[in-house]
Amino acid sequence: MRTASILLLLLLGMGTLAFVALPKAKQGGKEPGKAPSTLPQRPDLRLLLSGHLDGKLEPCGCASAQSGGLDRRAFWLKAHKHEFDLALEGGNYIHEPNPLEKEKFMTTLMVLGATLHYPVLPLGARDLRMGIQELQDFHEAFGPPFLCSDVYIKTKEGPKPLFGQSYRIVTHPKAKILVLSIAGKDSWEIPKDLRLLSPVEAIERALRAARKTGFDLVLCFVHSGGSETAARIARTAKGVDLVVSVDGSHEAKTKARVFPKKGGRKTYLLFPGSEGRYLLKADLKHAPKGWELLQLHKIQVPAPRPKIPGTLPPGTDPETHRLLRDLKVQITKSDLLEKMAERKDPSGGSYAGSQACKSCHEEAFAAWKKSHHAKAFETLQRRAKEEKVWSPARHPDCVICHSVGYGERSGFRSAEKTPQLMGVGCESCHGPSRRHVAFWTRNKGKKVEKAGKERAKTPRQARVACYSCHTFEQSPGFDFTERWKKIQHK
C-alpha cells in the first residue's frame, strides 16, 4: 500500500512539473514582456500612378543606368499584374507643341490605350496647347476618353465640359474611382471660346455632377503650378482623397503629404515623378471616415541596353517595342529633321562652326578635336548602321545633343547641308559666335579697349551649357567637376 501511495505521489509530482514546464504563452494566452504580433494590413485597393511623360517614350540610350520607356513599362505591368489593381497616368504627355511631339503623342495613345488598356487619359496644359480641335478628333477616334475637369466650352446654353464630362468614373471590382484632371494654365494661350475654371470650382462642379452615379474614391491629377499649387488644392478642396502632383519632379516620393479634413477624412498628396521612370504604387485601405494610405512603393522601370545592338532589349514588351520602333522609322524617313531645324532665333548671333575658332584658339581646338564631343555625330551614324531600320542621325531628339545649334536659325540642318556643325562643337558650349569671330578677325593684333572686348565675348557660359544635354535623365550621375578634367582646354 505504501509503495502504491509513493508511486501515486511521484506521478502527480511529474504532472505538476510538466505543467510548470509548459511555455507561459500556453497558460495565459500571450507571452509576458512581448507585444502581440501584428501583421501588416492588407490593402483594399492598389493603384499604380505615373505622369508627366514629357515626350520621353523611351530613354535615349546614350548612357547606362537610365530608366523608363513605355516598352519596359508594358513588360512590367504584364509580368506583375497580380501586384496591383489599376494603373493610371497623368497628363503632360508632350514636351511642347511641335510636329515631332504630335507624332509621339499618337503613339503614346496607342500604347496606353490599345496595348496597356489605361481606362482614361487626363490632359495637362501642355497637351491642350497642341490644339483643341485636334484633341477632340483624337478623343472621338481612340478608345480611352480624354479628361479635363477645369476647361469648359462657352455656349449659349452655358459652359460645357471640354470632352463631354468633367470627370470619369473607373469601375473596378474593389472600388468605383472618380478621376479628375486639373490642367491649369502653364503658358497656355487660352482660346476665347474656352473658359478656365479655378481648381476648387472645377472640383466642386465635377463632384456634384458625379453624385448621381456614385463613387467610392476621388483621385485628382494636378498638372500646372508645381507642388505648391497641388498642395493648395489638397488643402482646400473638399471630398478629394488623393491629389497627384504631375509637376515634372525627377524622383517619385515614397512619403505622402497628409492634409486632415473635418470629420476625420484625409487628403493625401502624392508625387509619382516624371518621364515614366517610376511607377508609384499606393496601397489603400477603406476606413469608416474615408480612405487610409497604408504605404507607398517606388517601382523603378529599368532600361537595360540590348545585348546585341538593334535587337530587343531584355525586359521589353515586344508589341510596344514594335510600335516605338515603327515611330522612329517613320520619323527618320520623313522630312521632320529639317522641318524642326531653324525654328527659333539663337541668342547672341549666328553660328560659324568650330573650324572658325582654330586660328585664335589652336590649343583649345586641338584638345577639342581629340575629345568625344568632336565625334558625337559619328556615334549617331555608327548606331544607325547597328539599328538598320531607323537612323538616330535623322531623329531630332538625338541630333539636338550631337550637333551645333540644331533647332536654331543658322544651326545644324543635316549632315549633307551643314557638315561643319556636326558633333558637339565649340559653339555648343560657348554659343553662336560668328560676331565674335568677325570682331577678332578684324582686330587681330590690334589694341582693343576693354568695352570692345566685352561686346565681343562669346554669348554663353560653358558650364551652364553642359546641363542642356547632360540632364538628370540622360546622364545619371553627371558630375561637371569630374567630367571637365576630360575636356579641359584653355
Number of domains: 2
- Indicate the overall shape: elongated
CATH level 1 class label of the largest domain:
Alpha Beta
Radius of gyration: 31 Å
How far do the termini sit from each other?
A: 114 Å
Estimate the helix proportion, in percent: 25-40%
- Find the structural class using helix and strand composition: alpha/beta
Specify the biggest β-sheet: 6 strands, mixed
Q: What low-confidence regions span 5 or more consecutive residues with pLDDT below 50?
A: 1-35
What is the number of beta strands?
Answer: 15
Architecture per CATH nomenclature, i.e. the level-2 architecture of the largest domain: 4-Layer Sandwich
- Tell me the number of helical segments per DSSP (H or I, 4 or more residues long): 18
Oligomeric form: single chain
Mean pLDDT: 87
CATH superfamily of the largest domain: Metallo-dependent phosphatases
Quick structural summary:
The chain is α/β, with parallel strands linked by helices.
Detailed description of the structure:
34% of the residues lie in helices and 15% in strands. It has a six-stranded mixed β-sheet with strand order 7-8-10-11-13-12, covered by helices on one side. Strands 2-1-14-15 form a four-stranded mixed β-sheet, with no helix packed on it. Strands 6-5-9 form a three-stranded antiparallel β-sheet, with no helix packed on it. Helix 3 runs antiparallel to helix 9. The chain has 18 helices and 15 strands. The model is unreliable at 1-35 (pLDDT under 50). The protein has helices at 2-21, 24-28, 70-79, 99-115, 125-128, 132-141, 199-210, 226-236, 318-333, 336-339, 362-369, 376-387, 396-399, 426-430, 434-442, 450-455, 462-466, 480-487; strands spanning 45-50, 86-89, 121-122, 146-147, 151-153, 160-161, 168-172, 175-182, 194-196, 217-222, 242-245, 257-260, 266-270, 278-287, 290-300. It folds into two domains: 45-309 and 314-318, Purple Acid Phosphatase, chain A, domain 2 (4-Layer Sandwich); 341-487, Flavocytochrome C3, Chain A (Flavocytochrome C3, Chain A, domain 2). With 490 residues, the protein is an alpha/beta fold. It is elongated and about 80 Å long. A hairpin with a 2-residue loop joins strand 14 and strand 15 (290-300).
